[in-house]
Amino acid sequence: MRNWKLLPMIFGLTALALLVYILFYFVFVDFFVDLWWFRSLNFEGYFWLRLLYRFIFSGAVTLIFFSIFFFHFWIASRYLGLNPPDEILVSSDKRQRFQTFADIFMYGSVKIYTPLSFILAIVIASPFYHQWEAALLYFFGSSAGIADPVYGQDISFYLFSYPLYMLIQQELLYTSIILFFLVTALYWIEHIFVPNQNKNYPVGSKIHLTILLGFTVLFVIWGLFLDRFSLLYVNSHEPVFFGPGFVELRYSLPLIWLSIISVLALFVSVVIYIFSRQHRAKMPIVIAAGGFLVALGLQNVDFIPSLINTFIVRPNPVLTEGQFMENNIKATLDAFDLDNINIVDYKVNLDASKDIEAWGTKRHFENIPVWDRGYLIDGYRQLQGIRPYYSFHSVDEDRYFLNDHLQQVNLAARELNTDKLPEAAKNWENTHLRYTHGYGAVITPAAQDAGNPILWYLRDLNMSSNVGFSVKTPDIYYGQEQYTYAIVPNDLKVVGLSDSAKDVDGVYKGGAGVPFPSFFRKLLFAFYFGDEKIFFSTNISKQSKLLIRRNIVERINRITPFLHLDTDPYLVVTKNRFYWIQDAYTLSDKYPVSKFASDDFLSGTQNFNYIRNSVKIVVDAYDGSVKYYIADSKDPIINAYRVAYPGVFNNLDKMPVELRKHLRYPRELYYMQMMVYSKYHQIQPELFYEQAETWQFAKVNKSLVMPYYQTMDFGHCDDSEELVMINPMTPINRSNLSMIGLAGTLDTKNCGQDSYDPYITIYKFGKDIQVNGPAQVEALIDQSPEISEQFTLWDQHGSNVAKGRMVILPMGKNSVLYVQPIYMISTKTKIPELTRVIVSIGNQVVMDTTLWSAFKKLKAKFKKDVIDSQGTGTSIE
Fold first, then answer.
1. Which DSSP letter does residue 731 get?
2. How far apart are CA 289 and CA 285, in angstroms?
3. Rounded Cα gap, residues 740 and 733, in angstroms
4. Per-residue pLDDT, 670
5. pTM score, two decimals?
6. Which of 209, 238, 305, 874 is the most exposed, having the fewest neighbouring CB atoms within 10 Å of its CB?
7. Strand, coil or helix: 780
């Protein structure tokens, strides 16, 4: 029997041990590893502040709802529910019996409604636990200075207040309904089970229930009031326009106001009826209830809006909904930062000889990117991987001051990829103590003569460069690969990874990383990774540091999960070391009347209708330090976070000049903006409704011509070259060009290369002269007997001919230049070779090994056409 008595104790101790283990493994260890990691990045204050915000808000909301439930249960049980007649109070026996039952409800029930209040508070407050950052934006957000086009509210109301108000209204409504029914039940229980009570409920209980009913009505009215703003997000008029139209603002909105008035009148009528002893009239209640039911019914029937559409809207769409289209256009352009685009009417002249003469200099040709990064990556991997454990994740584009001018280059970091190690080498010591980092980078010019091997500006593990690149610390511990954790420095002698004197001893001197000051911390890390080798390894010393979260995207997301990251971080080379620059966005799905982005921006995981490239993030590839710089100080969202987290976000002018020179317009942002602008550049309601000038991305062989980087002097500053994004677009379902868009970051007022002032310029072509699109130039290339014959000759003997990305540029004052590289790709090694470049202007197409020689051929052809036209008595206009 004694053994049986010990069973509850054994079960209790086992459960306690299990709880302690769960708390230790899933809470305690994670918490301390996060704390030490944030401390190593000098973000400890931010770590505590973020934790404090979360728990203060969650705890405060839970306490508020607990107090509401407890207060009303306490009132209902203690004061207002007991109503004995006078004869009960006169008789001592009856009074004693009544008091006994009364004490049970007044004092004993607290044991029930206290935990009940706590449980209900947690259930009601749980949605706030996941949306605590919405409250953060509400408290720290400020005015945006822009009013919505329908109600005139400041945009900050929709970005910060409206989402939180909807949540609060919903939870308060649930709370008032639950309280009303539970308190009513409590009064009923008191009235039934406490003996010798009056038949009528006391006035106090009626007042209490009326107050609860009043709060319920108040929250219903608040919900209806907020419903007005939900009209700003209707999509029933798409694909014509987004947002409210004639039906919503002339029919649905008045019905919402009628519902608000009806609910208020119904509540007042019911209160008067309950508390009036004489002349009780039910008619006001009936009228108010009827009004509410009519308003509610009219909002949920389809035939009346259908009749309005059929007989009023559709016969006069622009007249009735033109203003609402303008609202949608204005809001969308504001939300996607497209309201300050510079439009240039670009008149194309069929005679391009003057532009060829003026533009055909070597300086222009040195930056036309004939090397497409999609093909170049295979060449990098085959020719410069060097070791099996090194890999190039992707190729970036940038510009550096080389050869006496700003020159565009392609570059890629040589990162570590332990998955490529031989199976025998994939052990714990190798993957975490020996193979810990990548080494160096490769750089090649974007422009190059065809028929020659790839020209290298930076190559090999000795980091040789003949144009001035020199990196003091070329080790790469943080990058785009999926790095495992590393422990450096350690007591192993690591030799032969790069054959560099800097790398032989494997000594890591970076500031980041979590140190190992004690065996206790080693034990915690062993628990954290579930790997006992960390604790028992004798190669880990007190000088060692744990490097974790080494993928830069994972690293940034861990620090600032509220920022949305661009999918294309890029490498910057300085004299000291390598850096990664990551573009980050602030998004919202609550911008009023703005169309939602419909494409796969940010991998299609976000649903938004407001965006700003508000932050530039710099990650040191060697020590992993992370710095945040505000690139758009007008964005109200990032300003709210800046106030909430002081010291995290820096002004852009605090970024080192050598890094600021390499800021660029994000490719993904520009692609998404042009997707929106292709329709919303038609700002007149008539044009917007007709959609006659809608654009689309240019296509070649059914593939989109995506935006690409180009370094050139576009005349914004005297002789100043700049890196811009270029995007050609054609009319919908047509192949000729409508425009060429440029997106750059050069401050055209101050003209400093280290300045940052994003802009978009559209070179828009007139309708009187056809400007060839890439598909039409492709057809001209295919129709050239000389080119076709050469392709047939090359496309054999173990190699394939591939056409690279077509570069399209406005050239001079009246011409458009088309350049397409031709590669030969070995079927065995996949190494591309730049074989020829094709250049086209107007309807002329030539192919040669250099852009300069191709230009000379084009120049001769245009001169011949001019001479022939003069001989026949005609002229080219």
1. E
2. 6
3. 17
4. 95
5. 0.90
6. 874
7. helix
Phi, psi of 659 (to 5 degrees): -90, -40
Residue type, 30: D
For residue 652, give the nearest of 629, 625, 628 by alpha carbon.
629
Q: Is the pLDDT of residue 12 over 80?
A: no
Distance CA 479, CA 624 (A): 9
User: How far lies 278's CA from each of 183, 273, 274, 281, 704, in Å?
Assistant: 27, 9, 10, 9, 79
Give the span between the Cα atoms of 780 and 765, in whole angstroms: 21
Residues 6+ apart with CB under 8 A from 612: 337, 585, 586, 632, 635, 637, 638
Amino acid at 184: T
The CB density around residue 87, as the number of other CB atoms within 10 Å, is 10
Element (H, E) at 821: strand 815-826
The pair of three-digit structure tokens given for residue 253, joined into one six-digit string? 């909105």
**Using alpha carbons only, what angle is made at residue 609 by residues 606 and 610, rounded to the nearest 5 degrees?**
100
φ/ψ of 761, rounded to 5, equals -120, 135
Instruction: Name the phi and psi angles at 552, rounded to 5.
Output: -65, -35
For every residue of 739-774, DSSP letters joined together read EEEEEE---TTT--TT----EEEEEEEPSSS----H
Q: Does the structure show a pLDDT above 60 at 683?
A: yes
Query: Cα separation of 418 and 482, whole Å?
Result: 9
Distance CA 615, CA 586 (A): 8
Q: What percent of the chain has pLDDT over 70?
A: 87
Residues 6+ apart with CB under 8 A from 379: 454, 831, 832
Can you tell me the distance from the alpha carbon of 218 to that of 357, in angstroms, rounded to the nearest whole number?
A: 76
Those residues whose C-beta lies under 8 Å from the C-beta of residue 789, and which sit 6 or more positions away, are none
Q: Where are the alpha helices (DSSP H) in 385-460?
A: 428-429
Token couple for 298:
């009219």
Instruction: Pull the structure tokens for residue 355.
Output: 């532009």
With cut-offs at 50, 70 and 90, classify the pLDDT of residue 877: very low
Task: Report the 10 Å Cβ neighbour count for 49.
Answer: 16
* Closest C-alpha among 216, 172, 202, 219 to residue 76: 202
Other Cβ atoms less than 10 A from the Cβ of 141: the count is: 20
Q: Distance (Å, rounded) from C-alpha 280 to C-alpha 286?
A: 13
pLDDT at 503: 44
